[in-house]
Design brief:
By secondary structure, the protein is mainly α. The protein has helices spanning 2-80, 84-110, 116-139. The protein contains 3 helices and no strands.
Length: 142
């Protein structure tokens, strides 16, 4: 009988000790957990937004590259209908535009993002180069 009472008292003391430890420490650890999970959620949201923005940017630039390819193909077709002097004048320019546009497509597909600053730098230079190609296409009048 004494052993049962002793075991019950010991078990009750352990349970009370565990419950009281958890109730005192929970407020601090819960606050840290909530803070950590909020920060993690914000990081995930930022990464998700960055990924979405990158995907949209790549889609838009792929469309611009395809549009440039169509314009170049149309220029080549029109060029074939022109006189020999005109063809000689524009052949090199159109071939260069085609090469540059293909190079831009390769750059877009092979770029691997390392961090936000590198991505911003890539976009800046890529946009500048795409604008240059677009301007050159617009200047060729056939």
């Amino acid at each position: 009988m004494k052993t049962k009472i002793t075991k019950t008292i010991l078990l009750g003391s352990i349970i009370i000790g565990i419950v009281s430890c958890n109730s005192n420490g929970n407020t601090k650890s819960d606050a840290v957990l909530v803070s950590d999970s909020t920060a993690t959620r914000q990081d995930v949201t930022t990464v998700s937004q960055d990924t979405t923005d990158e995907w949209k940017y790549r889609q838009d630039e792929e469309a611009a590259i395809k549009e440039n390819n169509q314009k170049i193909a149309e220029m080549k077709t029109r060029m074939q209908q022109e006189k020999t002097e005109v063809r000689e004048k524009y052949t090199t320019q159109i071939d260069t535009l085609e090469y540059e546009n293909t190079r831009m497509e390769t750059r877009l597909h092979t770029y691997k993002r390392t961090d936000r600053n590198a991505w911003q730098d890539f976009k800046f230079h890529f946009n500048k180069d795409m604008d240059s190609i677009g301007a050159h296409i617009s200047r060729i009048k056939l």
